[in-house]
Amino acid sequence: MPSLGPVREPQAQSSRRRRLGLVGAVTAAFVAGAVVGPMVAVPGIQAWAQESGRAETYRLLNLFGDVFERVRAEYVEPVTDRDVIENAINGMLQGLDPHSSYMNPRSFRDMQVTTRGEFGGLGIEVTQEGGFVKVISPIDDTPASRAGVKPGDLITHLNGQTTQGLSLQDAVEQMRGERGSSIRLTIRREGEARPVEISLTRDVIRPQVARFRLEGNDVAYIRLSSFNEQTEGALRRAMTTMRGQAGNTLRGLVLDLRNNPGGLLDQAVQVTDDFLDQGEIVSTRARRPEDAQRWNARPGDIAQGLPIVVLVNSGSASASEIVAGALQDHRRAIVMGVKSFGKGSVQTVMPIPGNGAIRLTTARYYTPSGRSIQATGIEPDIEVLAARPDPNGSRERDREADLRRALRNNDGERTTETTPPAPPLPPLNLPAGVLDRVVRAPAEGAPTFDPTKPETDHQLQQALQLLRNIAAAPAPQRRVQR
């Protein structure tokens, strides 16, 4: 799934646009796309320039109309006007950057479900294999888990209709529905000679956005999988639960943001605020200077000053990078792992009544020190690899900078007279010898990483050891606040 954030959620009222990380005649949409920016002209020729600009806009709109009519009349197969227009709008938006796009009504509904963090359904994580829907895992305490759906099950039929040939999105949409409604699954299961028939009643599903546990009864571990409307509340509940379990024995916290693709801007702000007492969290700068915004922390640290390690990797994007960058700038946390994805842009969702919505990139965001991480990412304070380097030099996964039409990082365009470059971060100031004990890569012959076995997670084990070494050092870690 592509990164969602940071996204600004759609307006219900003009006065109610909340901060999140995501128009109607065709002519109006294309005029909006063709008139670009304020016009700068000498007063004597300004009127002429405006007329010339309008003439060019109308000429281009006529070009679109000519192509549209040619496609309708001569394409090898009949096409609907809606499909052609939606594809044209999507092409216009996707030609801007990798994260702007058009969402038809169904895609818009799916986006709202994703950001809301709850939906009516069965409670299974699925993928597609061999043309069928394959169960990755049932979610605990949901209709699917209670009915005995198992990882690896192949769902071959929904209400007697084959899933072969269905897209994964179509299959998921059929399995979702109103709470209390029923659906019948036909499952092919390894070891079973005959198909398994299961009838399920849909319920409200709230995927577990925060997974947590105590490591050795002295370090709290919290993994955030995304930033939806449930994230900050889940984080607080996790911290409260582990404090109750550990009593006064907690030495630190590992906040795992690896492979977290992002989500809602307001949730990234709230999660960061949970660990800061003061100072800037993030700022955004849009096309017009007057649209710049800034968010600041309020008093209250749910970790009560415990040292924190934030784990990131190349799959940590957008809202994850806002959290990691702010905690790093304030030296409230040590960022460990490898460089993050580098998505430093904000998308705003603009609904089109009756016709879905557009997701438009409207701003770049900056960390408290003034860094733009667009196409650069968050560099960890301590680099720790998940696996030993590949001697064959296999290519790393793509990051933002590798995407076609990715926005450039404009930090290099600053001038000392207007916006000075971001100052270097203060040193970590850790107890002597602590950094020397961090092992950058797993030992040769170390077991392959298994997500069900924390002891095989080299980055996590190094984070735990670092926190314990900090706690055991004679001098406490100094916290530097900006």
TrEMBL record:
Family as reported in the entry's similarity comment: Belongs to the peptidase S41A family.
One Pfam family, short name: CtpB_N-like
Pro residues bias locations: 420-429
Organism, scientific name: Falsiroseomonas oleicola
PROSITE patterns per record: PDZ, TAT
Keyword Methyltransferase among record annotations: no
Alphabetic keyword roster: Hydrolase, Membrane, Protease, Serine protease, Transmembrane, Transmembrane helix
Keyword field contains RNA-binding: no
Transmembrane stretches, start-end: 20-41
Disordered as annotated region, ranges: 386-431
Residues annotated as domain PDZ: 108-190
Composition skew (Basic and acidic residues), residue ranges: 393-416
Name listed for the protein in its UniProt record: S41 family peptidase
CDD domains associated with the record: cpPDZ_CPP-like (cd06782), Peptidase_S41_CPP (cd07560)
InterPro entries in the cross-refs: CtpA/B_N, PDZ, PDZ_6, Peptidase_S41A, Tail-specific_protease, TAT_signal
